[in-house]
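Box 3.1 A note on notation
Throughout this textbook, protein chains are presented in two layers. The first layer is the amino acid sequence; the second is a token string describing backbone geometry. Keep the layers aligned when reading.
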Amino acid sequence: MEQLYALIDEVATEKQNGSHVVAAMIVAGILRGSKYWTLEMLDELWRKLTPFLSKVLPHLTSQTCGYWHSCFQYSMEDVDPRRIHHLIHYFHQLINDRETGITSTETSRWYLIQCLEGLEWRIPSIWGEINEKGKELLDNSSSSIRKNLVSLLAISVSFGVNWKDGILTRHPDIDTFFDYLCDRLGQTIETYEKVSPTNEMTLNDPETKKAFDFFESGKHSV
């Protein structure tokens, strides 16, 4: 195993597509097979894997990110979440990581988080966190980040279930989410109406730009 860790650690910090293909395939195989490992073996695996994956993220490009997306997607396919709680914990950390300010890294981060869709309704608290954090970032200045967030937010509200007594599960409530969007849209319209097209200072105001970016996020199809 030590030789295997050394191999994937060596190739994943490179930017060549082939290196990431190799590393992603190795990790996918390990994660897929590890659902049958003992708890002690899993703890040891993730002590090595977590810092490794942290080094991978900053080196991802739009193409190599797809390889890792496939890696995690395969690892979660038709699996009981209780058997991959270390992997889910890693994604939970990824959701709550501080923003780096680097567009490519943030775009990759939110794209990878979409892999959780395979776990569907089984992780309601995670979808709740994604919904809360994602909707606050809809005014991000990057179109690519907003696009990934829009997709994630749509996923986060798609697994709610109404029981016979009318009580929802712990998944984000779509009605509450739409109420939030309507409020934000109302604020955006108010900001837009105050802007003078001939006043460059007003157009460059940070709050005005955020309002316009929020409005632009509505153009991204899911």
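The chain has a mean pLDDT of 84. The two ends are 41 Å apart (CA to CA).
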